[in-house]
Amino acid sequence: MASKQMLAVAAAVALAVLLPACAAATEHMVGDDNGWILGFDYAAWAATKQFRVGDTLVFRYKSTNHTVVEVGGADFNACNKPANANEWSSGEDRVALGKEGRRWFFCGVGDHCAKNMKLKITVLAAGASAPEAPPSPPPPSSPAGKVQARVAHAVAAVTAAAAAMLAL
Ligand SMILES: [Cu+2]
């Protein structure tokens, strides 16, 4: 019986560990149906999304009108396009989000960045939920842990007493 219980516990633990990793990677169409355009609030758009390692950003736009440049945070704020910056211009650019952290993009055409055609995102660990940590069992020092320890001690004492009585 004990081994069956342990198997059940092991299965539950394995599920808890594996399920988030199985969550499908998401393709984020930047701006949703609007695509990558002038006059859209990409900060507000990004605030409604969760970006995770393994996801993909898709920038869709008219390739004669816009581009996508990836820069660092300082260049993002200054709308500065360094000579060695990554710039995409296909009109349907797919950007893999391969690791956790910040990513900064803007349109490299004319003054579009200054007109707020820019996107800043934070990539979270795969399967992670943004603000909430997974629930963890109470540590032994917590009240709940102490109660559990006391119950265990009481059970052990009763068992020992019963054993002693049987031995008589
Ligand atoms: Cu543009």
From TrEMBL:
The source's domain of life comes to: Eukaryota
**SUPFAM superfamilies on file:** Cupredoxins (SSF49503)
Kindly list the places in or outside the cell where this protein is found, as annotated in its UniProt entry. Answer: Membrane
Q: Which GO terms describe its biological process?
A: response to symbiotic fungus
The UniProt entry lists membrane topology as:
Single-pass type I membrane protein
One Pfam family, short name please?
Cu_bind_like
In alphabetical order, the GO MF annotations are:
electron transfer activity; metal ion binding
**May I have one GO cellular component term?**
plasma membrane
User: Which InterPro entries is this protein grouped with?
Assistant: Cupredoxin, Phytocyanin-like, Phytocyanin_dom
What CDD domains does its record include?
Answer: Phytocyanin
Coarsely, its chief localization is membrane
Question: Locate the Phytocyanin domain: which residues?
Answer: 26-125
May I ask which residue range the UniProt record assigns to the signal sequence? 1-24
* Keywords, comma-separated and alphabetical: Copper, Disulfide bond, Electron transport, Glycoprotein, Membrane, Metal-binding, Signal, Transmembrane, Transmembrane helix, Transport
User: Would you tell me the protein name for this molecule?
Assistant: Phytocyanin domain-containing protein
